[in-house]
Amino acid sequence: MTTATQTATDSARTDLRFIIIGAGMSGILSAIKLQEAGLDNYAIYEKADRLGGTWRENEYAGLSCDVPSHLYCYSFAPNPDWSHRFSPGPEIQAYFEDVAQRFEVEKRIQFNTEITRCEFVDGRWQIELSDGSSDVGDFVIAATGVLHVPNYPDIEGLDSYKGTVFHSARWNHDAKLAGKRVGVIGTGSTAIQIVGSLVDEVEEISLFQRTAQWIVPQENPPYSEEEKAEFRKKPEVVEQMRALILKEFAEGFANAVVDAYSPELKGIHDTCEANLNDSVKDPELREKLRPNYRAGCKRLIMSDNFYDAIQRPNANLVTEGIERIEEGGVRTKDGKLHELDVLILATGFQVDRFMRPMEVIGRNGLALDEAWQKGPCAYMAITVPEFPNLFMLNGPNGPVGNFSLIEVAELQWAYIMQLIEKVRSGSCNELSVSSEAMEAYDIERKESAKTTIWQSGCNSWYLDADGVPAVWPWTWDRFRDDMANPRYADFDIR
Ligand code: N01
């Protein structure tokens, strides 16, 4: 007699192949987790010649992460050696390189290989690569990241500028900045860090501000050698610290931003206001730096040096709008030419790209561009109707508060793994969210977004083309619970 267990085991798939797109934080995570699950038949393709994703691409002056380092690392690979509470970018890049090597993922990465096309044909994904070769997989894991296509501003005359110009995510290391007149366009997290870091080095720095930003004061003490030795000796101390930061982030921030009238958010606003009032002496400058929207509406910026930097004698805050860019610099609407040697475009990213420009074709020839005609969507930020066995990490509408994207990706992976298990155990071959569930999910998501702080009256990269926040609009607890318990009734399972 055959038991149910035997039947499942007999039909279990041991031959599944996985295609991972991208060797950034999420791609490395996926490879490690597949190995851990004994699913070793995978390829990981990376278009660049190094791993690291956003940490490889962003090399701008002053780069650091605004999530504390002991949370901004994999839960299974703590790092007792972080130099600071918020560690600098190059250290984070080195961390990913080290983890990829230790977990034997790096040797599996096919560098300089861009996936140009994925098509779902007869139950499998056919993959075309930039070197002309191809691959076939049962699953595609899209770990392409969100902020990876620079947004170049559409400002008249940009091409006519004769000085050195580059986007913050394409840092020109050959550009001489010391003793130069440097302009920075933008006031996002990137620009704020750049200004704080360059002010001492350059002759003059001009920050072109279109919109003022609220800034949370953030001390960034280094860890002493004694502390690091203790972290090495007692991993439980690091674990406790991580748990504490996670709790603080979840309760004090992630849960607060989804309720525009929460007391926590009021507290954050008051902190930002006090920071501005206490830090900026000149009343005129202070008012120019005062945003006309509530703290948290745009992604909050944390800094311990920006207000100090912008008050230096060699720093200018330019709030007149930009009229055009000319050979010699930036002309503002008041007619003034701000002469510059170097112009840095800290103007953010095209946030609706995800896997694109790759061509992705799902069931019955449906192109992803067509499915996303009205904007990128994905159920739980992971799955799209008619794109079976294709799962995204940090996909559309995915960011959860200012939370660590690593923690988010780990929980998303746990969700994806449960879907993969369905196929591995032989209970089905294909899964993707059903069109009905996708529609219902998006209606609920958009409705819930109305009471979040992101929709309280400002413009930001969180908003989609219709002004709806393209983020997780619910609490951290709901995210954790939803990721742990897929609702299979919402899936088209074949
Ligand atoms: O980009 P942004 P970012 N003329 O989109 C301005 C993460 N990150 O690279 O506000 C003039 O936030 C635009 O003006 P406005 C983090 O998630 C994290 O700084 O639209 N200005 C805005 O000021 C962050 O949120 C860290 O009026 C123009 C700026 O450019 C995300 O990356 C560090 C303009 C763009 O700001 C993106 O941050 C860095 C124009 N034509 C980044 N076009 C940390 O972890 C755009 N702007 C610390």
Overview of this structure, please?
- The protein has 14 helices and 21 strands.
- With 494 residues, it is of the alpha/beta class.
- The chain folds into two domains: 18-149 and 350-493, FAD/NAD(P)-binding domain; 158-214 and 283-345, FAD/NAD(P)-binding domain, CATH 3.50.50.60.
- The strands form six sheets. The protein has a five-stranded parallel β-sheet with strand order 3-2-1-7-19, with helices on one face. It has a five-stranded parallel β-sheet with strand order 8-17-9-10-13, with helices on one face.
- Strand 9 (181-185), helix 5 and strand 10 form a beta-alpha-beta unit.
- Mean pLDDT is 95; it is low at 1-6.
- Bound molecules: 3-acetylpyridine adenine dinucleotide (N01).
Write the layout of secondary structure elements.
Blueprint: H1 4-10, E1 18-21, H2 25-36, E2 42-45, H3 54-57, H4 89-102, E3 109-110, E4 115-121, E5 124-129, E6 134-137, E7 139-142, E8 164-167, E9 181-185, H5 189-198, E10 204-208, E11 215-217, H6 225-233, H7 235-257, H8 263-279, H9 283-288, E12 301-303, H10 306-310, E13 315-318, E14 322-326, E15 329-332, E16 337-339, E17 342-345, E18 359-361, H11 368-371, E19 390-392, H12 405-424, E20 431-433, H13 435-449, H14 476-484, E21 491-493
Parallel strand pairs: 1-2, 1-7, 2-3, 4-18, 7-19, 8-17, 9-10, 9-17, 10-13, 11-12
Antiparallel strand pairs: 4-5, 5-6, 14-15, 15-16, 20-21
Helix pairs in contact: 2-12, 6-7, 12-14
The structure holds 3-acetylpyridine adenine dinucleotide.
